[in-house]
Sequence to fold (332 residues):
Amino acid sequence: MREFSVLPGRAVAELLAGRETEVVEWVREAYLAHDAGDTVNPDSYFLRFPDKPDSRIIALPAYLGGTREVAGIKWISSFPANVAEGLPRASAVLVLNDYRTGHPFALLESAGISAARTAASAALAATALGAAAPATVGVIGAGVIARTICQYLAATGVPLTDVTVHDRDDVSAAALTGHLARTHGASSRAGDLREALGCDLVVLATTALRPHIGEGHTLRPGQVILNVSLRDLAPGLLLTAQNVVDDIEHCLKADTSPHLAEQLTGDRSFIAGTLADVLLGRCAPDPGRAVVFSPFGLGVLDLAVGHHLYQRAGEAGRLLPVPGFFGETSRW
Fold:
């Protein structure tokens, strides 16, 4: 039986630093494994609270085969009210389970892993969907996810030469524009929603519970919209675009914009395909329409990144063993 170990957040951050292109490749491999049927990725389970409708804790169980052969679960909370107190909105842990015995063998602090896999997915989609060299980038929602997506976009060669940031909180917008200027040398500024939404590449990274970008806005041909927060766009607006998702069954639920579009139309014909379809050449971006990528977020991505980090942490002596964690190590 493997010794149970813990990987703290500081170690996770240090192990992730400078590995952006590696993480994108880990995520790409996980998407292709999922497409090949070499994963098990059940529905995410939402724990919601009657007196906190904007808050939730989500369980994402999964199994990733291929060269990984690891199971596990991410348990991630989103409490937007934390921001007003100067606390992170999201917190998470990732449990890794041995596929042969089922025993858990590691607990990883996972807010950083979750942000990294989300950002890697967005960067992978941006380049695959033809946004490798946008003249302008718009970021709507100026939190940790937006910051991390920009980091991964820059690392994968997407220029941040002209960035417009919009957030309902002016302090957050100013913090992200300053960070982009200092870290990436970006010409960045705070702007209104219409300005940000009019850019060549648009990142939606808000905590919106329902659509707030209505059909009065126009998505123009050639735009790539990374619909990471999933609930910003009115369903009718999606119907004017080419829609790519990470997983159709997962994305069309929980009142996401694609789910609302399905309810509006009564079918799923507005979905052009998955990101794996694009990566494998089965679906090509349509230059005559805007392309919207809507990733629900798959637990197999967390497993892919978490298991790689676990291995690298072991090689670097960064794991913290917990001797005697298991009360019994033999049946008799």
Q: What stands out?
A: DSSP finds eleven helices and 16 strands in the chain. The CA atoms of residues 87 and 96 lie 27 Å apart.
